[in-house]
Amino acid sequence: MLRFLNIVAILALIGSAVYAYSIKYQTSFQAEQILKMKHEIKAERDAIAVLRAEWSFLTRPERLQQLSDRYLDLQQLSVGQIVAASAIPDKAARVDSIGQRLNSLGLDGSTSAAASGSENAPTTPKGTGRKR
Amino acid sequence: MSDDLRENTAPMDANASPTSPARLCEWLKRVFSTNSSTSVPRMRWIALIFVAMFVAIGAKLVYLGLKPEPTVIRRVSDAVAAARPDILDRNGEILAADVKTMSVFAEPRRIIDKDEATELLTAVLPNIEARDLRERLGSRKGFVWVKREVTPHQRDEVFHLGLPGVGLLAENKRVYPNGPIGAHVLGFANVDNAGIAGIEKYIDGQGLGDLHGAGFKLAQDDLRPISLSLDIRATHAVRDELQKGIAHFKAKAGAAAILDVNTGEVIALASLPDYDPNNPTDALDPLHINRMSVGVYEMGSTFKALTIAMALDSGKLNLNSRLDARGALSFGRFKIHDYHAQNRALTVSEVFTYSSNVGTARMALGQGVERHKAFLRKMGQLTRMRTELPESAEPIVPKTWGELNTMTIAFGHGLAVAPLQAMMAVGALMNGGYLITPTFLKRSEAEAKKDAPQVVKSETSEMMRYLMRLNAEKGTARKVDIDGYFVGGKTGTAEKVIGGHYSKNRLFTTFMAVAPADKPKYLFLTIMDEPQGLPETGGYATAAYNAGSVTGKIIERVGPLVGLPPRFEPPKLPFPLIAKLGYGAPAPPAAVTGGH
């Protein structure tokens, strides 16, 4: 009995030792992982800082002006090109040009849907619209 | 153990010498005998020796623990360029930022073969001098820089050399992506990332320098970015127009700025010629000073605005009061002339629009020397103006200030101030009378007006705005009357002092404009040093032609950028008080050419 207890105690000891070690190794592994992550974050932050500086270097007004002078046909905004919001005409009433055309062809909505439904449904309205 | 020893030593001793070996042998026998009577004290001795040894080792450990040899990192933290906060413009665009670079350092004490190290390092880093490096490596210092800010390729090569005692360190390097735009405001930082000029120096003065000095290692994310009042796009536009203007009118130099009159924020500032803060040695050239705050100039007729405001504010004169402007005004042997002489009595409004020297001189004389002086002091024109920028200049005030001085200072000669200082005063005349010290940091109107003293009445301010507008409509500042912005303006042409005399053909021209004049938001100032007359200007080099036309272009270009929407109908009742007092627009003056 005593021997059995001894053996159990020894096994428990070994078991707890193994467990303790595995926990310890896991902890240090995780700690290392955290450290690595921290380094990565720092490297990313530095890279972001560099990229941000580069972005503002590339989008500096001086350079943009040179590029636009060279490649774009833009002119300086003049006051005459600015219009007050109230001066813009109201939106025209919505006109169903496709429907009108269908009507003028003597096809009303329901028959055209039935007719086109069987054949090439998607192309018919598009074609009419473009012709307008 | 003891038996073995005895067996080994005894025969050897016996062979070596007959007398003393016998005694030695006896002694050894006694020492190493296992006799109980001798072994107890012997064990005590041994125990004592061991205890002493352990005490010594322990003491040494404690000693080492208490006095740690400074590690490389510790020694380096003083030398490494510290992090600085980013500087942003008012819209969040980056004006200055830190990027990480690698620097090569060495610890001379740990380098084994210094000649070999020198040879290898100079092979990899071609632009350092071998003899100089050998000298530095030969020093007894714990830490020396080999080369700051190496390229990534050089960094890898140095790493692959694998020299003991030579290492790499990440450092912060300050970069200014916009180059010379806004350079005078930003200033710059040196290779150790310490602020040397401009806002960079101001940041250090705000405690950053102290923190670094105390050894706090600040990372980038501990530092909040600093928002300036500058708008980088507007600054670029201003600089671009100024550059074109200087080239066109063949001026020696120039400067332009935009001030928000309600908050005192400097929205844009350009001073040409300028420098690139990425290459700070250029900044030391005296030609590259910030002409807006470091240079002091006689502002010419723009100062008339102050004189007229003083006269109106005192209540002695109103806009229709008449002043004698017949002929030149004599004082002793001096004579004051008008550039656009009308030779009749002028109203106060006409004095402003004709830019009459005689009229303003009489106005200032009417107030008296002491009140004139007190008014200018109240407007901050006689003392050094302090902003965030460490570079500033004291105004040049005449040592003895008599009536003649008052007369000339009334029209802007004889008192030299920093242009930004003059802007502050004119801004106060525009914004309802609050003298707000300009700032380069973002701030709100409430913050700005909290400590701002009211220096003139709000009625006076309205009258001044009316005069500025009138001058842009009908007077000398018509170049600046950009449709839709309801601009008001004042020209100023000062003759430069060459060899103690005012020179007729070396001019310093200024142009002050406010937009919109009814609800003032921005004050524009352009100054030009020695612009030349051109055939298209009829050979005139006065302010309206050069500084005025540049200001007009700046307003037109910058207006939409800085939230100044153009209006299509002129405001219905721009100056309610003027209308109430019944000052109609006076009879339009005859065409005036070339403001003075």
At a glance:
By secondary structure, chain A is mainly α. Chain A has helices at 2-58, 61-71, 97-104, 109-118, 123-131. Helix content of chain A is 72%, strand content 0%.
Secondary structure: elements and pairs:
The complex is a heterodimer of chains A (132) and B (596).
Chain A: H1 2-58, H2 61-71, H3 97-104, H4 109-118, H5 123-131
Chain B: H1 2-16, H2 20-32, H3 36-66, H4 72-79, E1 87-88, E2 94-106, H5 114-124, H6 130-138, E3 144-150, H7 152-161, E4 166-175, H8 183-186, E5 188-189, E6 195-197, H9 198-213, E7 226-227, H10 232-248, E8 253-260, E9 266-272, E10 297-298, H11 304-314, E11 322-324, E12 329-331, E13 334-336, E14 345-347, H12 348-353, H13 357-367, H14 369-378, H15 403-410, E15 416-417, H16 419-430, H17 445-450, H18 458-474, E16 488-498, E17 501-515, E18 522-529, H19 544-558, H20 576-581
Parallel strand pairs in B: 1-7
Antiparallel strand pairs in B: 1-2, 2-3, 2-4, 5-6, 8-9, 8-18, 10-15, 11-14, 12-13, 16-17, 17-18
Provide tags for this entry.
heterodimer, A: 132 residues, mainly alpha, 5 helices, elongated, disordered C terminus, B: 596 residues, Penicillin-binding protein 2a (Domain 2), Beta-lactamase, 3 domains, five-stranded mixed sheet, 20 helices, 40% helix, 17% strand
